[in-house]
Amino acid sequence: MIDDLNYVYVDDDYKVDEALEFLSQYSRLGYDVETTGLKVVDGQDKLLLMQLGTEEVAYLFDPRKIDGKRLAPILEDPNILKIGHNLKFDYQATSRELGVQLDGMFDTQLAYRLLTSGLIDNHKGGFIPMGEKHKKQFPYKGLAFLAKKFLGINMDKSVRTSFINHQYRKEFTPRQLQYAADDVLFLHPLVDILSSMLQDEGLIDTALLEFEFIRPCAEMEINGVTIDQDHWRRIIQEAKAQAEVIRKEITVILEPFQDQNTLFGASTVNISSKDQILDAFEKLGHKLDNTEEKTLKRVDHPLAAHLLQWRGYDKLVSTYGEAVLGKISRQDNRLHATFHQLGTTTGRLSSDKPNLQNMPQDREDEFVNISFRSCFKALPGNKILTADYSQCELRILAEVSQDRRFIDIFEGGGDLHIITAQQVFGITDSELDIYNEVKKKDHPSANLLDLYSESDVSMYHRVYDFRNKTKVINFGIAYGLSAWSLAERFKIPQDEAEKILDDYFTTYFGIKQWLDSNSHESIALRYSKTILGRKRYYTLADPEDEQMFRRSRNATRRAGNNAVIQGTNADITKEAMNKLQRVYDNIEGAKLLFTVHDEIVSEVPEERAEEIAEIKAEVMRQAFHRFVQTVPVGIDDEVGVTIADHWNK
């Protein structure tokens, strides 16, 4: 414990003047807040203390008795570094109550996360090897953990709960004040240590990107988004109805295998029963070990497809039904998701309450073709701007591999998957002409054989099949797509899948070279790094355990390639959002709402929507080219931005 009386409790204007005069001399200050609870985003909980401290003394400002806005010149000055732990929370508490936005930050929580990204604590002083199963762990470590690890100090965090239960007007105890002071005083030696480690690991640029991203991440949570609740409920009812249709189809398949009905003639079929499903499949000639998704995907029978669809709709109803609507704030009637800016090992965000990253998107490769996009709407007088980096990960793959043929595809601006299908499978121009012509008329109500010859329709389906295969390869190649998984996906012999991959890598030899080189480097160095320098670390198993060692090497090989591509994607998106936040700071009513992978969604005043859309497109283009120098960001090197009343594609 630091010596007593290393803090000054500030509860009147005279003390504020003295404190600010003293603190403004320093270029680095610890910052922390104590609040009545954790619900600061929608204003439910209030500030109790605001702590600013040098290495020797902490000033504890009581915003119940003084005007907390008077701290703005220090808190908003980017030239005075504010150091803290989980500064996103401190930013939000300060901004929501006082309208003061922190600027110039160093977050010890994020710094340590960057230094250990990918490493899973085994609670024995080491890390779990790649490929070994483990329970999911929360991505961040607390201040007490870091103080113990690096400073050898045991912090008593039990005092924190006394603030949460603290009566708003009640005076603080000396123990509470000392606790508040320690929270900022311990930060200084921690920052010295972590800064040196970041420097040694070449992570300074990544840390600066992440520290700047605290602002847009915090603002997105504060801003929230308006949800059309009636439309949401209609979609859920559609999902329930579709699930019931599929359930009846499954029951028709299963009923012949049931021994009897109930006394009143009702079916005893239970499609949630694993035993009934396994028994039915065995009687249908498919002996299965389980009914997991990956197992059912390999079964060529309508029952498997129906089960996957039914489960998809059933999960949608339970996960995204009233459970999501119940999270809408009563204070402002908006949905405020929680974003973890380093929630994944690659640097991508994760989110919860609800998980926007997994929100159903109505994609053709999913079992559930329902989208909630149209429920995310702008307030009257506003518009939603939606922009994404088209095929960003494939463009990054072209950049890091410098495969000339792959780069040429993006420079030409054509259909990537068709062009790769042409180059890999040898589709001729005349065959492609037939495909493009028939595709124009291909819709659910059309009978193509009434419109085209049998040979043309056959050719159309052949090219369509080739395009699907190359699409899977294109998007899966950096994730360790194997011949086995390709064979499973398309239900083709493995030797045929191996030939497809061989032809692909023969065509794009530069990609093959990069994948091999980077994976070997990841194993040798025990880390991989993005174009910026963001690292993901790996632990290999003991070589004496040959099976586990081989498994950890293979897992590292796959993760190493994926981390470079997905991590660079995260770097690009965060760079764009950092710049957009600075732009939106100067446009009244413009705000970031959320991001889903490489898609950025904003809400802006309707009268300036077109102007801001152009600015957004250019900011995103420049952010992309900070990292990707030789590949265009899109057709004509432009980012497309849609303007609508709701979240659009």
From TrEMBL:
SMART domains: 35EXOc (SM00474), POLAc (SM00482). The keyword Transcription does not apply. Residues 369-608 form the DNA-directed DNA polymerase family A palm domain. Residues 7-199 form the 3'-5' exonuclease domain. GO terms for molecular function: 3'-5' exonuclease activity; DNA binding; DNA-directed DNA polymerase activity. InterPro entries: 3'-5'_exonuclease_dom, DNA-dir_DNA_pol_A_palm_dom, DNA/RNA_pol_sf, DNA_polymerase_A, RNaseH-like_sf, RNaseH_sf. Keywords: DNA replication. Pfam families: DNA_pol_A, DNA_pol_A_exo1. The keyword Transcription does not apply. GO terms for biological process: DNA-templated DNA replication; double-strand break repair. This is DNA-directed DNA polymerase.
